[in-house]
């Protein structure tokens, strides 16, 4: 995505990136930002439950600006360049929804419709079909010969199939039913926005927990990309841990971890563990937002853990 495209999105981007104008990856021409609830309204669909709690506890505009800046930095799949593809992609979804899913409502409100909301959560479907369906009563009997507009959306990466219908013929589409896999797909999508277009089956993954002063990161070996040389395998990782105490930011820790062992020894392990010292000193409720990167595959994953610390 080039800067000309980004510039065309600026009117919609202000509430999202204006607070980070000093960062070259965002547009430095935006000088001022007025914090409103518009940011939360439009991004709550891709927020984790922990992020929602943190945002609602932010005390002032300054802390909200910092939160918004870091919200998109965490999702940036290529932080080394001067563009944030995750942010640009999300704003394009809003723009698309406002253009095509307005449904006779107010201008620029297409993202609030059911189709718009799912578009924000899951992205553009891999396949989209249009058709008609019979107008049925609640008991399943045919009501009239009138046929209603229908859309089918296919998300192959989530193995998900959605059907939207205009039940009253007024141009307002609703999901015909909610598949059991929809919530799972939405949870996966909250992480896959970090994944730089890679398939779900190739994603680096890990679990995390807190023990004493340490975060324990457990990585299943089947999700690690190894480099093999002379009978030994190597793997390297980078981790960023955002620490919050009682919903207030308490710092960011960056660490690098690596492993090198005999091939046969690695094959006998189901997972490998790393410790990250968090230096807990103050009592309270801690929440950790952990972002890890497998260096060899350039794949990013995100997970959360929490604890309550007492002196």
Which topology of the domain at 204-309 does CATH recognise? Immunoglobulin-like
Rg, nearest Å? 22 Å
Main sheet record: 5 strands, antiparallel
Estimate the mean pLDDT confidence. 82
Q: Please indicate the percent range of residues in DSSP E strands (runs of 2 or more).
A: 25-35%
| Helix percent band | 25-40%
Ends distance: 50 Å
CATH architectural designation of the domain at 204-309 = Sandwich
Order of helices and strands: HHHHHHHEEEEHEEEEEHEEE
Indicate the CATH class of the domain at 204-309.
Mainly Beta
Question: What's the overall geometry?
Answer: globular
Count the beta strands.
12
Count of discrete alpha- or pi-helical segments spanning 4 or more residues: 9
Low-confidence stretches: 1-34
């Amino acid at each position: 995505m080039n800067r000309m495209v980004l510039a065309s999105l600026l009117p919609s981007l202000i509430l999202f990136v204006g607070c980070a104008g000093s960062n070259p990856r965002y547009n430095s021409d935006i000088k001022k930002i007025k914090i409103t609830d518009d940011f939360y309204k439009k991004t709550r669909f891709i927020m984790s439950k922990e992020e929602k709690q943190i945002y609602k506890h932010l005390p002032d505009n300054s802390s909200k600006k910092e939160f918004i800046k870091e919200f998109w930095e965490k999702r940036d799949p290529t932080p080394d360049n001067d563009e944030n593809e995750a942010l640009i992609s999300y704003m394009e979804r809003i723009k698309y929804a406002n253009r095509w899913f307005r449904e006779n409502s107010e201008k620029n409100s297409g993202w609030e419709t059911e189709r718009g909301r799912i578009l924000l959560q899951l992205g553009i479907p891999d396949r989209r079909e249009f058709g008609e369906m019979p107008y049925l009563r609640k008991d399943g009997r045919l009501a009239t010969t009138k046929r209603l507009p229908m859309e089918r959306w296919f998300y192959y990466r989530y193995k998900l199939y959605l059907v939207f219908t205009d039940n009253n013929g007024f141009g307002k589409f609703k999901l015909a039913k909610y598949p059991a896999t929809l919530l799972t797909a939405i949870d996966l999508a909250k992480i896959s926005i970090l994944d730089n277009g890679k398939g779900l089956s190739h994603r680096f993954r890990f679990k995390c927990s807190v023990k004493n002063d340490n975060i324990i990161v457990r990585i299943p070996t089947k999700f690690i990309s190894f480099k093999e040389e002379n009978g030994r395998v190597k793997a390297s990782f980078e981790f960023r841990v955002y620490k919050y105490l009682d919903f207030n930011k308490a710092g960011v820790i960056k660490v690098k971890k690596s492993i090198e062992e005999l091939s046969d020894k690695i094959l006998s392990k189901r997972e490998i563990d790393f410790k990250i010292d968090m230096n807990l000193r103050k009592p309270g409720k801690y929440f950790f937002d952990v972002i890890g990167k497998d260096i060899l595959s350039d794949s990013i994953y995100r997970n959360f853990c929490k604890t309550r610390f007492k002196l």
